[in-house]
Amino acid sequence: MSSGWNIASYPASAPRDAVAVVQPLIDAGYLVKVQDEAGHAVENVPGIGIVNTIGDFNSGEGYYIKVSTSTSLTIAAPAAAKTIPLAQATEIPAATHFSMPWQGHPYKAMNIYLLMTPEETAALESGWEIGVFDGDLPVGAAAMSPEWFQARQYLPIVAGMDDPLTAGIDGFVPGRPLHLRIWDGHGEMEVLPRQAASDHGGEGSDLHMAFVPQGTAVVPWEQLAFTQAARQTAVPEHYYLHAGYPNPFNAVSVVRFDLPEDQVVELTVYNLLGEPVRSLASGNYPAGSHRAYWDAKDNFGNLAPSGIYFYKFQAGPYSLVRRVLYLK
Fold first, then answer.
1. Confidence band for 162, pLDDT divided at 50, 70 and 90
2. Closest CA relative to residue 218, chosen from 135, 84, 110
3. First to last CA, the chain
């Protein structure tokens, strides 16, 4: 194999764990990444360790292998068929809200890993999804299953690049900024990574959130900045500010407010001194139920200290204050 990307087939007749096949390259420090045609990968991911979303190498299948130097790899036939560990046999939860523009497998896929702590996972609700976007084009997605995160604390997402041999744009354009959207079962909300670790992407990819063909990015949930409230479709009968959830919270608090009519809204976080900390919603909102998210940061992106805070909600004639406890 030459330094860089290589294409190799798996010659053995019996399937074998992908990590076991490339373990000599890992031990020598030569392996950068392995990908299959679907964009699943084996690689050493910062903050996670060795990740295997391929599962097994299978007879006759082709794989992309990137190494840091010229080397060779001898593949021995497995002594006997093995039992696939549950962590590999379990399918990555598929998204149903976000649909991809390509047919078949993604082209030169980029691997994105969303990290969540157990405390952050506790705030997830059933039905949440995360989509990866190039502008308004969805190029990758996965369901944010609480059960998946409880077992792994990371979610792998495959994003596909635009295939130059197909008509139209059916994937990301390399170098363009990567955007994320959360679907909470009621509406979409854009989130912006404040900073994310990225490697395997070539020059200039140490810290960035740009699309890289066959690249890798690691996105901690705590680094995401929610930019707008998501809207529900049902129109409520009364003005109302719901209690923040979870309470207390460690990473992100969700607060929902109802509008029976179009209205000017101000939703602001205050500290115990009565000082404004963060504006969560401001301006004209249509009738409906909306969700806002506070990531425990102030208007300047600084993490707030632990303590008691208040959500103050003003919508036309209606005003209400809710208390929330933030614990680091």
1. very high
2. 110
3. 47
